[in-house]
Amino acid sequence: MNTKRNVQYWVIPPEANAEFVAHMEDVLDVYSRPYDPCLPVLCMDEQPVQLVEEIKAPLPATRHHPKRVDYEYRRSGVAKVFMFAEPLALWRQVSVRDKKTKVDWAVEMANLLEGRYAKCEKVLVVCDNLNTHTIGAFYDAFEPERARSLVRRIEFHHTPKHGSWLNIAENELSCLTGQCVAGRRIGSAEQLREQSAAWHEDVNQIQRGVEWQMKIDDARTKLKSVYPEIKV
Questions:
Q1: How many CA atoms lie within 13 A of 123 on its CB side?
Q2: What span, in angstroms and rounded, lies between the C-alpha atoms of 126 and 33?
Q3: The Tc1-like transposase DDE domain covers which part of the protein (predicted)?
Q4: Dihedral sign for Cα atoms in the order 211, 32, 159, 6
């Protein structure tokens, strides 16, 4: 009896779902806009990272054998990674925090709005509809006057449920995981912060861009099953 199973885990979109289509086309419309430094498109996403600490010091590599790491390790909690990416500016930034509450998210957004985007009229933010990604988060974090001044400069564009693949920041998180985190033991949030900062500085320096291929017309052709059938 063959017990091996070939299973792929996939984000399966819903069928004939008007809400999915509306949010998808909204995000695709945002991606089709030309670059405007006064109205930047900022994609953001987040993910947890398991921190793993060495119990014994690894043995350095020599001419005769590679670096040797003991099989035992100690779990050191979970850090939260916030990824911010501005595709048309060839820029991304990683922030590492101990938590991912509404306040944590609002503080990270405020740092960008009052820093990198201080002179921008408005920032178009592409993100999922997680309950921490709301305008109310700013009022949890700041006094009403400051919160309102920040909220006034944000224009949200939420990806649809089961449509996280539409968020370019998710692609950047995948790159961060594969190039910086996977297969390594990172024992503290501070170490993860240093490693991820080195990663995004290196990628920004080489000016790696994102060539987004799908347009609204492509979606209407290739994803017909998610569009409702109009019955007049």
A1: 26
A2: 13
A3: 40-193
A4: negative
Class of CATH domain 18-57+79-223: alpha beta
Alpha-carbon dihedral of residues 62, 65, 69, 71, nearest 10 degrees? -160
Q: pTM of the prediction?
A: 0.88
Q: Where are the domains of the chain?
A: 18-57+79-223
Q: How many CB atoms lie within 10 A of CB 150?
A: 21
Locate all alpha helices (DSSP H) within the chain, ordered by sequence.
18-31, 102-113, 136-141, 144-151, 168-176, 189-205, 216-222
pLDDT tens digit sequence for 155-182: 999 999 999 999 999 999 999 999 999 8
Helices of type H across 32-177 = 102-113, 136-141, 144-151, 168-176
Amino acid sitting at position 111? N
The number of angstroms, rounded, from the C-alpha of 61 to the middle of its chain's C-alpha atoms is 35
Tens of pLDDT, residue by residue over 98-114, are 999 999 999 999 999 99
**Residue 134 DSSP class:** S
